[in-house]
Amino acid sequence: MTSCIQGLRAAVLVLVSCTGFLHAEAAVELELKRNDGPHPSFVANAGVYEIRGPMSVLASPKSAPAPAQRVIEFEYFCAGGVPSFAVLPGPPYEAKTARYLPLIGHSETWTPYSARLEAPGKPLPAGWQNLRIDLPLPADRVIQLRKVRLRAEVPGEFDAIRNKPSASATEEALDAYFKTSFPAEILKVSAGGNAIRIEGQVPKGTSICYLADIPMDVILDAPESWQTLIEVKPREDGSFVIDVPRKRKRGTLEYDRLTSRWQLVEKAGTAIKPLSHAKYAGWVDCRAPGLPPIHPPNKKGLGGWNRGRLPNELADLGITAVTVNVMVHSLVSLKPGPGTEPFQWQGRTYHARTAALQGYDATFLEAMKHNVMVSAILLVANSAKSADPLIRQLGHPDAVKEGTFAMPNVTSEEGISLYGAILNLMAERWSRLDGKYGRIHHWIIHNEVDAGWVWTNAGEKPAAVYMDLYQRSMRLTDLIARQYDPNARPFITLTHHWAKAGEKRWYGSKRMVELLLRHTAAEGDFPWAMAYHPYPQNLFNPRTWEDEQATFDFNSAKITPKNLEVLDAYMKQPALLHKGKVRPVHLSENGFNSKDYSPKSLEDQAAGMALAWKKINALSSVESWQYHNWIDNRSEGGLRIGLRKFPDEPGDPMGKKPIWHLYKALGTPEENEVAAPYLKTIGITSWDEVLYKGEIR
Question: At 664, is the pLDDT very low, low, confident or very high (cuts 50, 70, 90)?
């Protein structure tokens, strides 16, 4: 559900500190305090304000704001969000001068918010000193605020978002393309070391047609689709096999056709008419076909792991899999400089940052030492938040500042070349037979893409348009990675919001999978897999067995630990199989909250994990559970979701919670003994009672 992975949170904090708010230099800071005096439900700590339950807070400017500074902005973290709320200037604080601001959306990371305090014809009253903010939070909800300030409005910032027409296909064009029943078909595309082989079938009696070589960055129906046509003369039965060189010129640059899609077309004068759907390479020549897969001995993993912090933890807990966050933009430079080494991709020269690569080397080598499966989470800095030329080129041009990270720019030649260069650099380095630099086994493509507005931003787009962008990133990673590791898989990453989207600008996980299947059915399947985040229905409540929105059918609003059988059954449907086999499911980010450190809260936290473990061990599609969070983090919206306490917890810094000891025992002979006390917590007498054995459809 969330990506409050400790390493990812750190990455977010670094990114925010580097980019900041767009207008921070022209802002007046607001200091918050509870309106009716001190109370445990309001805590201010190091610039972060934590508010629990409904409350009025006073916001006092630290200096006199200018007349133009009438936009309030802040960063917030709030699972569940806040309805539309009132801001009253004063004193006096009167209803007639109240401003009603837009709702604060559900958020699982630090998210920017801004709103006008003045509307045309309704200025703030003269002489106001403070703003009273009335937050109608439910009693059990927590919001954290930071960087609360007033600033001037920037022209156009509250206008409707306008996307660039060249940066994505239209929903209408995509729907028409996939619904078309074409007379011809590309049957197979194989990428050899020096040649691409394309096999297909056209209607019997066709004397001549053409094969279009369409680079991945070219969007549907763009004129560039037909710039490179290859004549095809089918056999009498309409079948054909043609080999073309793997490399060709694209403009003045050398281009690797590994990433092209291939489509049959016919010509009538200058007019071009498609005869088939386009197909990508299904088979890719690999430099190390004998590179062995990894088979973790149990399903126990750790999310957002980083080396150097508690160096014995992997061994102590018996961890067999980790996720590692990789800020891909940090690995290269567009220009040479100290500590860089040149390399090429698609005819362009880039410059690898040696220190950044060596930092990841150390992490992956440490994981290799423990024989741990590594899944890299690929994160792209938000181009709307940065003036860095590399980040601007790498991130999607429609991205807006509300996103934590961005979709890569997969619809421009320069953008996809840069992104592909980084992927190739990573795959070549971390997929070696000798393991010189460590190894990445699998690739998690960005973060929680059904909540792409927050985590993988490409502007506000229909689900079909967003998936057309995202599946390009998945395919590019797949094609590049399988050149070096035949076992590598790209994973789609999704929240626990299954058949119902979590927010207005979100899509729902099931919808994303359905759209991905539409692409693979038409354009060729590839070995994608599932990285799911089945947090409890309420992040703050670890008693997942009480999740009423988690039902045992494919239209369940959410998939949480309570109904994991739904995901297992869904992935075993014939339409979801790859070459007749079930795609692997990694529960790559999941955890349970302890509301505090009282014995009851810690007991509930561990009970949630015990239930989840008994479930996943019975589900054959699930290969791994990467627990989040390793250590409690004070910048996670009031959550205490770690196996260990806060690093600065008085008297017990990073203390082991009961869930730590349970997690250590899972998958060992001590498992049942350590888990047994939590049967009573859940209200059952046997773990068999938590396993759903009914039909799911």
Answer: very high
